[in-house]
## 1
Amino acid sequence: MCGRFALTLPDDAMAQLFAARPGNDLPRVPNRNVCPTDSVHVVTAEGGRSLSAMRWGFLPAWYKAPNAGPLLINARAETVATKPAFREACRARRCLIPATAFYEWTGEKGAKQPWRIARSDGAPLAFAGIWQRWGPEGLPTCAIVTCGANEVMARLHHRMPVIVEPGDWPLWLGEAGHGAATLMQAAAEDALVFEDGGPV
């Protein structure tokens, strides 16, 4: 699962990194505690790459209100292509969600310790995501795709976000043909570093 993350990269640096046109309504950065239902930065490739804001919490078309069903902040890689809520977005509306790090907690209830998880090379993360517009006003919403954890991550949690490597960004975004399903797997064992996250 991925339920909290951090983003400290400036908007112009993100736009340059992803070769994307930045929108005018981007969320505030730095934000070291991005929470579900917050507005998040998202890279899409409709009519060229763009960096825009979306609600973190995917809303299926049949929801009558944002709270009409479960809060869908994550989509499981194993079922994202077949689950009615996600399958059309998985086929046609994939995105990248930038992050500096994400958090997981360990320990007993009431005394849980947060762990900050980032790339071992210091580069930003790009989570695999799916998105769609919801409601009469076309509210853009998104979810992070997760998969089973690799061995290192499994010490903290049995799931982890799918992290898309830069060379695979065109494939995930639908710019490089078919085959994006092959990207929905755990990161390499040495791809991430873990440190005490402090207060989150």
## 2
Amino acid sequence: MPDLTLHGGLGARVDAEIEVKRSRFLCRLVRTETEDAARAAIDDARKEHWNARHHCSAFVLGPATASDQVRRSNDDGEPSGTAGRPMLEALAGRGFVDCVAVVSRYFGGTLLGAGGLVRAYSEAVLTAIDLAHTGGLVVARERRELFSLALSHADAGRIEAELRQRGVLILGTDYGREAVLHIADDDAERLAATVAQVTAGAANLELRGHEWVDVAV
């Protein structure tokens, strides 16, 4: 399963709400990359929904293959294991990384029991994830090789368009004495052949390292 996250960079957010026996569960899913930022998002939810009874949370930071991936969850006063853990399992089960989920609960007067809470908190997160998918707001996180391609200003626009049409992921362009395209790819040989084709062999790729990048799903 690929690592997935929210499209739009840090701070991207999706909100969802479900109701179970008159209790309202409001989930916000926020893209982040550090524990401090994740806890700041939790604090923001707590401030916005100050009169909600609970603000349960879970976050996953870093790729699934990393030995130092961070996973945290908090029940915030709900019975142990009925909120944060199922929220974390919902995120991890759908392959979501670099995200924090916060579910603010407004109590509706009816006790749900342990099983009911587990289902409700999990469903709230899954509903937010489904909304993100439906809205085209999900991208994959992949480790790619980074390249730069220096071009004349006169040719840059045309060549960039042709590369994009061939599915090349272009991260951006710097304009100075030359126009320099920044490219991420997972097949250096194929990319070199494509660049040679669209530039008639007049430009050379330079390898710049590796980076985790957003890729359309």
## 3
Amino acid sequence: TADDELCKKIEPHVCASSARFKAMKALSDNGIFTGVLFTPILPFITDQEDNIRNVIRLAYEHGAKFIYSMFGVTLRENQRDYYYSQLDQLFPGLKEKYQQVFGNNYMCGIRNYSHLKQVFIWECQKYGLLYKMEDIIAAYKLENEQIQLTFDL
């Protein structure tokens, strides 16, 4: 999320998003291939259009070359139990919405997937950020390709 307060709520044991972006900027400024694995996007929590736009903008402003997302969250059986207990504590009533919408599905996709994926693509293209995994891998390999030195002796 681009929102530090929401970040502190959903990830209390890590640094805020703004600190992560600053770290990414420092790495990028030193020539390191950086980007954002924008996953998971939590349905009903971080799947708002403004959040997606802001994360992409901040990634660009902090030197990212790519941003990749799977547009949802995966929940295995034990993960689901823990996640639902956290939803009960942090977002009362949301667990019931997850149960109604997703049941016991492994993949819990975001609302308005088609629209939000298109927004994601437009924003990435606007800022020149890679967003397809095959393009990200190709760019990384190209940027980090070892050059064989030869000497005329």
## 4
Amino acid sequence: MTAPEREFDIVVYGATGFVGKLTALYLAKTGGDARIALAGRSPDKLLAVRESLGPEAQFWPLITADATSPSTLNAMAARTQVVITTVGPYTKYGLPLVAACAAAGTDYADLTGETMFIRDSIDHYHKQASDTGARIVHSCGFDSVPSDLTVYALYRRAQADDAGELLDTNLVVRRFAGGVSGGTIASMLEVMRTSSRDPAARAAMADPYTLSTDRDAEPDLGPQPDIGWRRGAQIAPELSGVWTGAFVMGATNARLVRRSNALLEWRYGRKFHYAESMSMKSSPLAPVAAAVGTATNATVVALGSRYFDKLPNRLVERVLPKPGTGPSEQARERGHYTVETYTTTTTGARYRATMAQQGDPGYKATAVLLGECGLALALHRDTLSDLRGVLTPAAALGDALLDLLPAAEGVTLETTRLN
């Protein structure tokens, strides 16, 4: 399906927010000849952002658009090939823009980590987006590109080696330095708010296949806990001596990765089993840290999913970062992460995919990932999958990102056969 000619290649919506501005700055440095516009509620703030981006962006058009005014979103979506949006929490503000892009046949990329928002997006707009040719690609930042793409890279490597399908697959966050972005915190709180208000949503969140294309077609692999702690050697011999505990975004990431497998018609495998954890290293206190961290995570999730809506709004607002704020440039530059994803295939082959990135995961690294996803949608359409509708980074952009990200600022991505 050929997309209609549009005025812009990419519109960055939410450009006056902290991560929106970082994404625009990244595109100003790397976007080349891409036709880019900035969008948000305030023309004055948009102008100030554009002036801060350097000479490459000085003639980028400015678009006034507001999540509370669907007509402005419809007009914006009709003018561009791709909308990149950083306006969250997405449960509150996201669906009208998804609707606009689905109706216009416009590709879309966001940073959401809100599982039930993605489920709502699927239920309401997957069919329409499929019909109009739109790619609605959720979770294009640190949540959940490293998870989704390392598994896709393992699948591609095993496929190239004729090594069979993926079986037990585990992502381990090996190194992490940086703050948690205000957007991520807001998303996490929104997930708990939704679960605490809606028993059906709470039940859906407990299902490992919440985001599946066809729940009845999914295999029964037994318990697939999102929160646990164990020795690293139970994951891979290379992690001997390491202890792992719960990773705060593991539940969200895992459901997205399982959706990728379903969208790809279970090419990873019908017995593909996926989980995420965080390394607590190998000190004498590591098992205690893993147990305490995991128990704390489990308690917060259990209580929050039932009682979060009972908390006073003023208390919640006090723990949230103020809108438009974030760490200093020096702190953003010091941040980094490394994830390792291990798998065993049906032929007994073992692989590891390693993805690392310099830059605070929630801010600089996320801006790079989101920017590259937008560029892939806009400028590398011949390398994208034929899928349309509500998609995942791997299902929509997998091959394109495998080509683009190793050349992106501060990113490394490689696969290794271990036996």
